[in-house]
């Protein structure tokens, strides 16, 4: 891994500050280049396919942009991710508005839900690897859930986040259980990513 970090450049195909912070945690200092992919795959797809394919198209979109821009030396390694919540056979993404956030958090309250993150790694030389990680989470809004959920929504934190909560932020107070990779819920399963990168 150390040799790879020293010899290759990295690009994060996302504008997520959380994902950038996670990569920096393991020594990757990427250039940030958000993908233009529309993220419009049908939600009828199996959830694992949905997140991996979305991540793949994000990575390829950015790799194509970089190829057009040119540049000397080896092309950078592009890392792209997609995170969704899965409950009762439904893929849940980012809330559209306050009403949607309230409905989502009410559904998640005191029930185990799954967080899936799809990851795609593209080396710009024709190699593309995809995988996904699943983490189960239980949120508990206590004896006055409606009031607490509305207070939380009023902070603005749920917006722009899959499942309408940020596990590492104010929502930490509502997290009762986490089974699996915690970083996966934030946006990148770091252990699995590092293991995959060692093969590049």
Written account of the structure:
One of its GO terms (molecular function) is nucleoside triphosphate diphosphatase activity. The protein is of the alpha/beta class and 200 residues long. It has seven helices and seven strands, in the order αβαβαββαββαβαα. It has helices spanning 2-7, 17-25, 47-69, 98-108, 145-154, 182-186, 190-197, and strands at 10-12, 31-32, 77-87, 90-92, 112-122, 128-139, 175-179. Strands 1, 2, 3, 4, 5, 6 and 7 form a seven-stranded mixed beta sheet that branches. α2 links the parallel β1 (10-12) and β2. The chain is elongated and about 60 Å long.
Q: Please tell me what the overall shape is.
A: elongated
Query: Helix proportion of residues, in percent?
Result: 25-40%
Could you give the distance between the termini?
Answer: 9 Å
Question: Poorly predicted ranges (pLDDT <50, ≥5 residues)?
Answer: none
Backbone CA Rg: 17 Å
